[in-house]
Design goal:
379 residues, alpha/beta, six-stranded mixed beta sheet, 23% strand, elongated
Length: 379
């Protein structure tokens, strides 16, 4: 009989990256994260798998907000009410770094169908038709390596699934407390029917290690996570292992890059931006636009008003004008007003070449002196 389960990871409940609230007063991006998780649970209930396996970082922080705690409880309860067993491991974000803080995972052991590994040690759950090997995040490196040594298969009559929240090979995020699986131990991964990984935020199959997969996060937490879908993974083990990535419907979040702006006119640059924008609807989207090698004399042409007109229905936009020939970036943002960059834009419209550089340097010197005086006045 085939074994079917869902691999989900890195929900990061409580995360928000924009200071924008809706009519209800709640942070819109934080609500996006909750909606993504709820949407994943909708799919899980529809798929009705044998069990669900969450590979860590259900929360963005080890001390989540009340709302994040409530949302997690509600969605896990929905899975339990559907009669679907739920297994989860702690991740490096949602497990406390200090022994003086208790892990919050304990409160979600609501019934026998919810099992959570968070004790910084390998835990094994042997069920009637499968065996789960769960290695949660471990704060201490030496202890982590000791727990890795314990990973082994003793019963090959059932599918064996290994779950970890770690970096494997080059899939490191260079975060504090991040654990990296030892290279010399990677051959053992091929012995498992499936290895479910958390921590890396993009769906990935690490083919050279066997059936080893990162599910990725359920929402985007930075602009580096644009250009690909977020979702969950449906796994079927029946003699061989088959994997299907199921994408989630999320708010449009896109990075748009225009290179070599020094060799393009204003209209050519705008046309290139529009071409990239037209792939989907703009309404409610988040857009990060980068104009590379933009001549300083052209910087003022790309004003906030230009992008407000272009992205009228967007939730948020940010534009980086990376100036050609110098290490300078002028930013404009749909939500904030940067007086310093506004003044530099205005100066760029009035002065050219060396004259602009002289005025710019003087302006920045005066700006620095003003900031220093204000900082001293506050002491």
């Amino acid at each position: 009989m085939a074994l079917k389960f869902i691999h989900i990871s890195d929900s990061h409940l409580g995360f928000s990256d924009l200071d924008i609230t809706g009519n209800d007063g709640r942070n819109i991006r934080e609500e996006d994260v909750y909606k993504a998780f709820s949407g994943a649970v909708d799919i899980i209930i529809k798929e009705n798998p044998d069990f669900v396996l969450h590979t860590g970082d259900i929360f963005h922080r080890s001390s989540p907000t009340n709302r994040a705690i409530v949302i997690a409880a509600r969605e896990i309860q929905r899975i339990a009410n559907a009669g679907i067993p739920f297994y989860m491991i702690a991740g490096n974000h949602d497990y406390p770094k200090s022994v003086f803080t208790s892990p919050i995972h304990e409160i979600y052991r609501i019934n026998d169908s919810v099992n959570i590994a968070y004790s910084e040690k390998l835990e094994i759950f042997e069920e009637d038709n499968f065996i789960l090997h769960l290695l949660p995040h471990v704060n201490d490196e030496e202890k982590f390596l000791q727990e890795v040594e314990k990973i082994k298969i003793t019963d090959k009559t059932k599918p064996n699934i290994l779950a970890m929240h770690i970096a494997v090979s080059s899939y490191a995020m260079n975060e504090y407390g991040e654990r990296v699986f030892p290279v010399e131990k990677t051959p053992m991964l091929k012995k498992f029917d499936y290895v479910a990984l958390g921590h890396w935020h993009k769906f990935n199959h690490l083919k050279k290690y066997g059936n080893v997969y990162y599910a990725g996060s359920t929402e985007r937490t930075s602009e580096s996570q644009t250009g690909y879908d977020k979702g969950i993974v449906k796994v079927t083990v029946s003699g061989k292992t088959t994997v299907e990535f199921i994408p989630l419907k999320l708010r449009r979040y896109e990075k748009i890059v225009v290179d070599n702006c020094k060799g393009k006119s204003f209209n050519e640059i705008i046309s290139e931006i529009k071409k990239q924008l037209n792939k989907d609807k703009i309404e409610g989207g988040i857009f990060r636009i980068k104009l590379n090698d933009l001549p300083i004399e052209k910087a003022s042409e790309f004003s906030r008003a230009v992008f407000e007109d272009l992205l009228e229905d967007a939730l948020h936009f940010n534009v980086e004008k990376n100036i050609y020939g110098v290490q300078q970036t002028i930013e404009i943002d749909s939500e904030s007003f940067d007086l310093k960059n506004f003044i530099l834009d205005e100066l760029a419209a009035e002065f050219k070449g060396k004259d602009f550089l002289k005025v710019k340097n003087l302006t920045e010197k005066l700006w620095y002196e003003i900031e220093e005086e204000e900082a001293y006045a506050d002491q």
